[in-house]
Amino acid sequence: MPNQLQNRVGNYVGLLNKDIQVIQKNLNDTNTLIESTDPETIHGVAEALIHSNLGTNWVQVPRQYSYEDYYLIAMDRFMELSGVAGYSILLPIESEKVTLVMTDLNVPAAFAFETNQDQNGGAYFVELTSGERLFYWSMERKQIQFNARAIVDLLVANFANEGVTIEQNQIIANLLTEFGRYMERVFGYAVDFNILETRDDYIYNLIQHAQPQDMLDKLFVLSADTSYFLQGIPNGAAISLNDHSEIRIFFVNDANALGAQRWHFQVIDGRDQYSWLDILLSYDFIAKWYLSENKTLEIAYDQLVFAVQQSEKQDIQPIFAEQQGLTPMLPSEIEALQKQVREQKAAEQKAAEQKAAEQKAAAEAEAAKQAKAESAAATGNASENATSVGADVTSAETSQSEASVSESVSVTQLTPKKSFDDEIGEAVHSSSNPAEK
Amino acid sequence: MESTPYIQTEVPNNEKVLNNKLNAKVAYVENVTEALNKHNDRRVYELINSKKYNELIREVKHADDNRTLATLVSDLQPDLSHHLSEQLIAHLSEVFPFFYYQESALGVFDVYFGNWWDRAYFGRLDPINVQFKFKAEEYDKLVASVKLNGEAKRFHTDDIDGLTKDNESLQALVENQNARNEQRKELETRLDQLDERGGFFNRPSGEERDEIKGKLQELDAQDEKAASVPEQIEANNNKILAYSKEDTILIYEQRAINETFGTFEAFEAKVKSLYVDYVKQLAAKEGGQVNA
Lengths: 437, 292
Known about the structure:
Chain B: It comes from Weissella minor. The complex is a heterodimer of chains A (437) and B (292). Chain A is α+β, with helices and mostly antiparallel strands and 437 residues long. Chain A has helices spanning 4-35, 39-49, 67-82, 148-159, 166-187, 215-223, 276-282, 284-293, 317-321, 331-377, 381-410, 420-430, and strands spanning 87-90, 99-102, 111-115, 123-127, 133-138, 143-146, 190-192, 204-208, 230-233, 236-240, 246-253, 261-268, 297-299. Chain A has 12 helices and 13 strands. In chain A, the strands form 3 sheets. Chain A has a 6-stranded antiparallel sheet with strand order 9-10-11-12-8-13, covered by helices on one side. A 5-stranded mixed sheet of chain A has the order 3-4-5-6-7. In chain A, a hairpin with a 5-residue loop joins strand 10 (236-240) and strand 11. Chain B is of the alpha+beta class and 292 residues long. Chain B has a domain at 157-245. The A-B interface holds A 214, 216-221, 223-224, 229-232, 237 and B 115-119, 238, 241-242, 244-245, 247-248, 251-252.
């Protein structure tokens, strides 16, 4: 029989062991999540991880990936397997929070998941600056639902107005679509593509908020300034567009619909190539019309899932400002590194100052030489000028080095302060994007 | 009574004449039948109106008409019209590519201008006489808009400008609501002050009172007007939309004409010479003979 002490210590070891096992299971799953090349396996561990709980008390893990992060890591893995390109993931060394950014995008934007808090679970894929919820993902129910409203608000109303090109927008649209297609194809997900659907025979359902008034007349008038024109078709209108594509806007008689007319859109190109979103991105007059009419009708999305359209808006500048790297670091390590960098900088500065002083001495010697030569010929004016030039140079250099010292002290990041664009560029560059390979 | 042998009714024998006439009719009908069967539309045009044909195609001055013979087929006009439309519309779709036709009843062809949204019903096609019968209202609008185009204006530019200005002043009426409320307050205070000061002995100045009341009534009228502004702006916007739509249609019509004919005058000339151009072309297809 073990004595009381043995019992006590045994219990202690047991408690710790139990926690370690929980942590070990989590680590194994996480490892599988990033290393496996089998989609089913990845999906399985991802599903386990979004339900795991590392809230252990006896052995604590101070820094953890959140459920949101696991969603994004899983999404990244699936996109890697399906060959989706054009994005990268920010990898801050100071925290485990991961964020998706578009590699080639000239406006500040960052994407991450936000878990749904009600009993339905799942998570929203959110653009952080605008808070737009672009799609909802439930791993348990194998379900993805896109949000036509948010996608239009972000890409068409917002980005396109800020000078994002059609191509840049289409990379985002393509990323969303391809991810949805992959999940549908590989795991048999039920995906509601709505505004992203490119099939010719797909009839877009619309949410009718009010009875449309003269909306086709409005589109007709808007088309007058373009080389495209609206044609009448039974119960509606159509426009022939570039590349053999065509859109149709028409209604079906339905006593239950507002005004007894249920309206639909259709995009036909013979190759299942273009979605309604592509049309909005490519043709400004149609986008303008759609945005002005969308209080009356808009492409349908799940109104229950997206009862709340937006998450809280976030300032993403701090996310971009964080130091990126492959190795996580503790605050103390980062501080040490910063100190090292500061010292190196100071050394460089000292060397530069020394060099400047040498140059100054040389310049003074030269000036003196010149002054001597000139004074021999005339007055001392020339030598005064030369000295004042030398003094200017010194003072300019002093102020410059002072500025860089204060910078490296006050800024927590290791690199000197840069513009926001540079930050994005740097962040993107330093992260490891599997799709870039 | 005996019959008087001196007075007799003489009925000259006209059998021959009658026969000739009947034969001419039979021949006419046979000719029409043959022309129809052979799909020789040129011959049909010659037969159904020889005066027009001779004067315009053969360029004979003052040719005789064959109206009496032509009446033989006049009750067949819808069928003839339908028959003749086939080749004619094929020809028209090349010369006037922007016109579209719908046979609303046998031989009756509605003409539509363009294939765009809410295109105009532009009149009728008369295949028997080879001519367009444009709807005066639409045609006059087009002519007017061609003229305005020379002044860099659209048909409804003035209407739309007027309505836009209307909307601006209506909007101002709404925007001035606060100022009016302030003014009202001020006037009412002054009226109260007058009442107080009045009491029993000092009858308040009636004039000042009336003036203030007048101003208040003016404010009432303006407020009332402002209340209906949203509906008025909405109504104006609907009118603007309707005008813009019509302008767009007229622009498309002009553009179509200019793309095909270069000028509106050239289009008018082509419309005028349609019979000659078409029938001569039929003759040319037959082998260049207009006298066959």
